[in-house]
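Annotated sample (chain length 418).
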Amino acid sequence: MTSPDSAPAEEGAVAMPAWAPFRFADYRLFWLGSVAATITQQLAILATGVWLFERTGSAAQLGLLGGVQLIVQIPALLYGGTLADELDRKRLMALTQAISAATLAALAVLAVGGTLAPWHIYAATAVTSVTGVLGQPARAALTASVVPRTHLMHAITANTITLQVGSIVAPLLFAAVAERWGLTPAFVVTAATAAPSAILPLLIRAGGRPVGVTPTDTMARRVWEGFQYVRRHRVLPGLLLLDAGMTVFTFYRQVLPALASGLFRGGPGAVGLLTSANSGGAVLGSLAVFFTPRYRAKGMLVVYATVAFSVLVFLFGTTTSLWAGALIITGMGATDALSMTMRQAVMQLTTPDQMLGRTLSLGTLGATTANNVGTLWVGLLAAAIGEASTMRLGGALALLCTLVVWRAVRGLRDYRYP
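Output written by the structure step:
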């Protein structure tokens, strides 16, 4: 029997409670670091987005943040997965989080000094985007090292719930600080939350190096090997296409300041409420995964969640009531999280450890590219035709893409687990 505080070993399949991964000391450290990283990321998005919108009054300026991220994240993601399959994943996580912490601290100093300018926001976004995506494949791949394989589905679900709980806490914290003291203290709080995520990975006792890796080829060759693996996989291309089709036309989170203003005439408080409602729904969607172990058609479960998400996005563009919008965005968060958790689980359960970093990074590359293109799309289109029309059009196009992928990718329809 494996001790809860020892390095995890393979166990027989047994029924287990939702909190089973927390029996392992390494997973608890991993989880706490993930909480800190998530809260920091969400605070940074809110603080920089609200500050930029208040300074410029332009939804297009918010949309350009997606353009900055798109430019810098693609090469970082391609090599981030390869690094995660070659280097110590714990140290890679710690290093990238430390650079992010230093960058956010610089923004806080500029804000306190009254010299913060829009170009600082774009520059800091570029740096934190690179560090975030370089560390993300290592963080995702390390999950399989801190729990036994029998606990992996529960651990992935707990990771997703952690992401969403942090996304609830961060907006509420941001709204409280920004409404009471202003945006400058919000930058200071953001920098302060970044430190634990750089320290805690180094305290994990499980090995951080990938198993079965003997790197002999060039980095470019290893990147190509990962691409070929994903391309030939019977399920993953369909999952990635579903995510891209859904996200490109609907990615609303980074432009919520403009949506809150255009749809509901709200300020930072409305942004905080909508963000928390979205994350609260995501927690519910992630918890729903615990009730799906007997539903073997995991690919179709992603399809159903994506269809529901698309319809809710369309409805979001039809309301002018903040509370109705909060209710709808709760459903959007739930269906998005259910889809995301299933995609992550299938990736990890069907990929060998020596390919895991590259597979996850390519999945993240697809998602992040779609996020950034979506930020550009929603921001620029909202400035041109209005926020409500943008959401309605996005929901309709996302639904159309989902139906096309469902019909075109047979592996997605046929996949069963286990």
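Annotation: Confidence is low (pLDDT under 50) at residues 1-14.
Annotation: The CA atoms of residues 244 and 367 lie 6 Å apart.
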